[in-house]
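Obj: model holo form, ligand = S-adenosylmethionine.
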Amino acid sequence: MSRSRKGSKKASRKSSASSKPSANRKPVELDAEQVSAAIAPIELPTDELERLAAAMSQRHANVMRVRRDRTDAFRISRSDADSHNQADVPWYPLALAIPDGFHASRSIDFAAGEFYLQDAGSLLALAAAQADTDSLSGQLVCDLCAAPGGKATGLLEAIGDDGFLLANEPIRSRVAPLAYNLSRTGSDRYAISSEDPDALAEKLPGVFDTILIDAPCSGQALLSRGRQSKGAVNESMVATNAARQQRILAAAHKLLRPGGTIVYSTCTFAVAENEDQVDWMIRELEMQPSPVSTLSDYQSPLADCGYRVWPHRDGCAGAFAARLTKPIAADPTEETAEFSEDPWLLRRGVLRSEQPLDSDCDELIQSVLGVSPSENATEDDSGFFRQRDWITEAFCKGAPEWVKQDWTIGPEVAHRTGQTWKPSHACALRQTNDPLTVNVVRIELNDAEAATFLAGGTVPTDQRGWLIVQHQGRPLGWAKADGRIGKNHLPTHARMQVAKNAVQEQST
Ligand SMILES: C[S@@+](CC[C@H](N)C(=O)[O-])C[C@H]1O[C@@H](n2cnc3c(N)ncnc32)[C@H](O)[C@@H]1O
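Output (holo structure tokens):
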């Protein structure tokens, strides 16, 4: 990576193209009185209320949450992480402000999944989950309200090579972007579900070590992006959301193992949706506050284990996050799914199919990936392929037994268009040492060739068949080659016009 980190100014002072409001979404403005009512009973001096009102209608620049295995390339060091105050996003040191002039969202780095672009406020929840440390490594984690994956992708990176993530999103139409974003991490240690939290809690009681509930809320922090109307501060809107949040929290409590951790977050300012929910969990669910020492600067005035970042103080849209644990001595008769106690098989190796795959799909997987999905499973093989009508998934070895149930969705490995099976984009993006794709032929592109490929163009190659196209060793997608050129198989949603400055930055 040639680009260096430029100083350590706060995110709020940086400018970038992604900070521009979209043409058709105007920020919604509130006056100080309306803001005061929205945050009551938290009281702020009048001049601060005015600054808050002004900052709430101002769009803040996104930041880059850099993929954990790429922090070296972006020159983020552990010492940055240890000295929070020096970091661009002090509550989440593994994030960087977008350097001036760098068109982050239209760079090859972005296409290669090097970073996720998000509001710095949304990193408060990841900070409360300690996703910037090794605390989640090896854990079984659930993101209960996961789409589009801004936090699920951070959790997936934080669980490492021996944890597992269930990313749940009840709204079906939001599952595809979630799946795409998860695949961009290169990890295969996840499954997706699309369940109402109550229904999920019936299926997996007492299973998870950590659960993130980034709850649907009145979204007052989204006013600055024009993604909410003034109705976001109506009492009835807040009350409706608070009631829904309690239902979700009760389900999360059932899903959590004794001793496990709940991280609750919203992007709203209303106390009824934030600190009051923390009180309710302590009172009604007997949860215990679990303060996060690195977040003490952001302590809520109303909850010991609750934290707030504010638009006028912290240069972001604003957010709330809290961390609580479920006591180990909870009701001993409480139901716990029996498979939660199974030892995990955490080995990696060749995957096998439990049921024979469609013969064309089987052939594709054998010829492109060089593995034989339909051979009999051996004792050591816990990872497996599964075929649905149109897609074949490949779950990682060591995935919990319950991923085999039909309500889960696994990392996609191949899909059918008409009668023809093709390798899936998600499969190309797997880490280059992933046993599933380690045998695939790869071709390396220079900056200009990569930009052409990302825009949907062909690639020069004397190879034949399915190839993974790479830039600086990072997979970008599939091409199918005939010995002269490789035809582009990037899905439409993964195509982009690389900005000129982003290419030039790479080559300097
Ligand atoms: C604030 S967004 C989550 C954003 C996501 N965590 C991220 O960082 O990208 C809340 C999500 O909850 C989902 N949702 C809506 N109703 C829900 C419910 N009853 N239970 C769980 N999730 C729900 C929404 O569809 C939405 O995707």
